[in-house]
Amino acid sequence: MLRLLRLLDQPQHVATLAPLVEREILYRLLLGSRGDMLRQLALPTSQLSQINRTIGFIRRRFDQPIRVAELADLASMSSPSFHRHFRAVTGMSPLQFQKRIRLQEARRRLLSEDVAAANVGMEVGYESPSQFSREYRRLFGAPPVRDASLARQGVEAGA
To answer: What is the pTM of this model?
Structure first.
């Protein structure tokens, strides 16, 4: 990686040397302790690749209701098999994963935009402001409005 970054200081060599350095990095990654996992991701029919495809689907549609059966079909797996493989890859169920994505997006919006917490909750897919607030507090340790306020104060204090 360092050799690749050093090429930025020599732009005339980037076009020729960068692909070679990138190829070496990939080669070393494939030989490393996680090489098997990387090879599985590269195979479109592997279980890991199928789970990765459903993760992308959840990320794109985090604000919409998603059925596990729909995800299992997308991964070409039975629901129990999909659930087991998804949990092995992410450490959580598909619906927990979707909830985490929703809450992270809500927090990002609360911190970067001047919006009401209840509106953000609805925008990321929650039907109830109280459910949104409860789950937000559970993940981030404070209700949405207080968390955003504390985060802004921390940024202002550090500036």
So the answer is: 0.71
